């Protein structure tokens, strides 16, 4: 509960929402689904700007840009049920959105909120990274940047009172397989570590490799060095095992009550190998 909340704004225009958020006093924050904000009990929040009426609930296929476009206010339930999302990247985005929360929270939490919060083990963000998602952010101007870049600059970008307005996914090119793997205490729990792989091929050679991990850093991460190792190669089990071993060496997680640092390092390699092998099998 936000016990010091004094103002509630419900704008119908993006520029009006941004104007309200730029105010120095009272401290004003955006309200999307509210699943994180309301649960935070942040006593410094005095005003909220509800984003419900800004027209950002869409999930659609855009044939002109050859992309799937997801408005920031689309709920995880919207994403998991969307035919456009289910048809791309072997359905792993819809799968991750469904597993990211229980049924009640899936109908409340939004994709824009998930990107803004950037939970270290968020399976949906890991999958979006592997699918090379781009994020549109509006402040004084609208800019689009890769999700991977947004995550490294998240504090800087959101400090400018910017709003995330859209997540875009380019349609895969060529023969593409995608998969996500996770380990958790129970199937219903959030993952301790998760890994996603997207592999594209032409004439038997890997033209694009994208790998992402959650639960091994402060935010989900891409693995560009390992991606380069796979690109241009005829990927097989031996190469995947070598890549997985390197992944275990590259990551430097911090342990907690859910899993030690050593366990997370080991599972980063194991799950990455499983995801790559499943992505490869889906090409057949």
Helix content: 25-40%
Helix run count:
13
Which CATH class of the largest domain is shown?
Alpha Beta
Instruction: Name the average pLDDT.
Output: 94
Distance between the termini: 51 Å
Sheet bearing the most strands, described?
A: 5 strands, antiparallel
Count of discrete structural domains? 3
CATH topology grouping of the largest domain: Uridine Diphospho-n-acetylenolpyruvylglucosamine Reductase, domain 3
Q: Structural class given helices, strands, pairing?
A: alpha+beta
Spans of 5+ residues with little confidence (pLDDT < 50)? none
Rg result: 19 Å
CATH architecture of the largest domain: 2-Layer Sandwich
Strand order of the largest sheet: 4-5-8-6-7
| Strand elements, count | 12
Shape annotation: globular
List the helices and strands and how they pair.
Layout: E1 7-9, H1 14-21, E2 28-31, H2 37-40, E3 47-50, E4 59-62, E5 67-71, H3 76-81, H4 83-86, H5 92-99, H6 103-106, H7 111-117, H8 123-130, E6 134-138, E7 142-146, H9 147-152, H10 154-158, E8 163-170, E9 175-183, E10 193-202, E11 205-214, E12 221-222, H11 224-230, H12 237-250, H13 261-281
Parallel strand pairs: 1-3, 2-3
Antiparallel strand pairs: 4-5, 5-8, 6-7, 6-8, 9-10, 10-11, 11-12
Helix pairs in contact: 5-8, 12-13
